[in-house]
Fold this sequence. Notes:
This protein is α+β, with helices and mostly antiparallel strands. It has 20 helices and 24 strands.
Amino acid sequence: MDTNEYLGLFLEESRENLQVLNEGLLSLEQDPENEMALNEIFRAAHTLKGMAATMGFEQITELTHKMENVLGKLRDKELEFSRFISDLLFKCVDALENMVEGISTGNQNEFVIDDLVASLKNLEEGQGQAVEETSQYTVKDELNEYENNLILKGQEQNYHTYKVVVEVSPQCVMKAVRAFMVFKNLEELGEIIKSVPAVQDLEDEKFDREFTLYLLTKENENKIRNAVDKISEISLKQLAEVKIQKEANLPKEKKKTVNQVDSWDKTKIKTMQTVRVDITKLDNLMNLVGELVINKTRLEQIMKTGQVTSLGETVEQIERITSDLQNVVMKVRMVPIEQVFNRFPRMVRDFSKELEKEVELVLEGQETELDRTVIDEISDPLVHLIRNSLDHGLEKPEERLAQSKSRVGTLKLIARQEGNSVLIIVEDDGQGINIEKVKTKAVENGMVTIKELEQMSEKEILDFIFAPGFSTAQQVTDISGRGVGLDVVRAKINSLNGNVFLESQPGIGTKFTIKLPLTLAIIQALLVKVEEEVYAIPLANIDETTLIEEDVIKNVQGQEVMVLRGKVLPLIRLSKVLEVPCTGKCGEELYVVVVRKGEEQIGLVVDELIGQQEIVISSLGKLFSNLPGIAGAAILGDGKVSLILDIGTLF
């Protein structure tokens, strides 16, 4: 069987079954007598085992088979569900998720699952409680031929290679910074020849708490230990010397495991983005296409017979069908936000357990639909906000009781549609943000003066925590960690033409509200003219437009500004920013488009307002994907191309 053909389907269905396993185990933890949840888990494990066996993934097959045996005993009441069994099964699910993602990316890590298999076997044989609860799968990081040669040559010159496994504290909110400090300290002792995960993933915080480095050095183990130990919130989990024999470079037979994907065409194992569609939507789509074909035939008939009187009616029909077709296609792209929300109950369960906090996660509006492209992008910002609430917003049970609160904290994740936008709310009933400490830090960081603070509203002051670098590791406890990384959250939301707003009350809680467009494919835009060029500004970013005289513009410390209803508005001339060639035209009147990013406003100076239009966003391709100030392009009704402005980058 050609497994390449079915790999995409295997990956998609495996992820769905793993989600069922996660949700089912969470349900069982709440109610160990929930037979429906147990049956769902059993079916998911059985299905995953069958698919893996068909595809030839022996490790997944072996692990799910052992899980199935334990789940069978739970169903038959031969085993009693316990926290130990729950933790073990969750570890199995984690291992399966890593193996499935390993297949997806084609990475060559071999997953050693012996500990998990042994623990499951002991449970099956009635010895489960004697097994240590800390059993975990491990990953054997294979070195490629180039890295093997480096180590061999190093050995010949009396260099040592050490495998350094480092773990970041659960309380750490700046993992990337800690990873950088580990790199910096170890690079003073030698050369890091490999990082797992890759350096880019470490910088982007795309790792849980553990990472592995291979260090080529002439120093001894003690110096390496000291280099790591001097970094706070970091612990050295493993330090072992790596020895490579020359024979290690020779090809040899290996047991077929997850990394059998190496023999496959890696261009074929990239999973295509897919959307599951309700059949009624497809039927509607087909009917509209049928109507288009009929009207196309009518147009051809009109051309042949010259029946001009029928032309207007046919054009109206095509206009109606095109509009309906657009709406249906947009609905086809829409997927429920439940796909994102479903990941969080497990994350909240694990993280609150590590932090010794009791948390109730409330999910509302999972059926709310968003464009698939938006869904794919919002997961990371939501993860950051949720971790922030768990780590720094919600208090421990004893602290809550001392404040006459329920010992169990509440974390709400709510989604709802409002017009052409979707609101996503992350709200906790924790300690909130201390506004006085935010003021102090803002002044200390030189972001504002005490006199300026007196003129600012509480909302404007809270907005400081979205500024890059507002908080450092030393400052985290001063403002409950609320500034760390929130600039990244806002930047991501702004890149989706959305906004994020913050409300907080000390002792009562904090609420983040994210506002996003329903779709990124088709938007309403204002077309403007700059010299002879036409640009599109998304309406979602526009507050208002105004016509001004040239002499209204003032220059303050090198920045052009104007006063709009008593407020100073910074101005940006698009002709300068976009380097549009000047045609020599100069008028006394100018148009200003007032745009917003979060709580900030600026005025874009343009030559002419053309009007509002619905446009279809097209990518500029890889070559022009990073043009500053440009988000994409659109083909207008007259066939000309208009560049779409990326408002967030102009601030």
